[in-house]
Design goal:
Elements: H1 2-24, H2 26-38, E1 47-48, E2 66-74, E3 80-84, E4 92-98, E5 103-108, E6 117-123, E7 134-137, E8 141-149, H3 156-163, E9 167-170
Parallel strand pairs: 6-7
Antiparallel strand pairs: 1-2, 2-8, 3-6, 3-9, 4-5, 4-8
């Protein structure tokens, strides 16, 4: 019995270290991959991607009836303003993911009353404009993702101009 105790303890320690690494390290690695895939327009800039095809799938399991706009962000130099312009008569949502892949904010067009809105994304302690709706995070990096539901993929052409009114940019004067 004693000869098994050492390997059993070593196995338990190895399992605990592996589980800890999976919980702590993997989400950040996945976020870095996602930011690279979705960041064709650069960091702190909104990219309005083409519709997903079998050959082009920038997000995991993309829906062919959703148009995606994404803003990989880095708050190390200050807060970010995210402006969303809903497309009339179409479901859309803004989701903000932090560096650990946690969802820290979600709003859809119904909750916004179909009207354009702005949120300021900032690290804890960063100054923000007075009266702004603020989303705080503990992480410098992450992704803001807008999804627009299409009735048919062919209608993207007529909706694209409105979709491209959504943007993200650094806040130039937070006070």
């Amino acid at each position: 019995m004693r000869s098994w105790l050492g390997p059993l303890i070593a196995g338990a320690v190895l399992a605990a270290v592996t589980a800890w690494a999976a919980i702590v390290v993997i989400p950040y690695g996945l976020m870095n991959v996602a930011m690279e895939r979705l960041g064709q327009g650069g960091v702190n800039r909104m990219s309005h991607g083409n519709l997903a095809t079998p050959a082009r799938q920038p997000v995991v399991r993309p829906s062919p009836d959703l148009a995606y706009s994404s803003c990989p962000y880095d708050l190390s130099d200050g807060p970010l303003a995210i402006d969303v312009t809903p497309v009339e008569g179409r479901y859309s949502s803004l989701s903000i993911f932090d560096g650990a892949t946690d969802v820290i904010f979600v709003r859809n067009d119904i909750e916004a009353g179909g009207k354009p809105y702005r949120v300021i994304l900032a690290r804890n302690g960063q100054p923000v404009p007075a009266g702004a709706e603020v989303v705080r995070t503990d992480h410098d990096k992450g992704i803001a993702l807008i999804r627009l539901l299409l009735r048919d993929p062919s209608e993207i052409g007529k909706l694209d101009a409105v979709r491209r009114q959504s943007s993200c940019a650094p806040v130039t004067n937070p006070n």
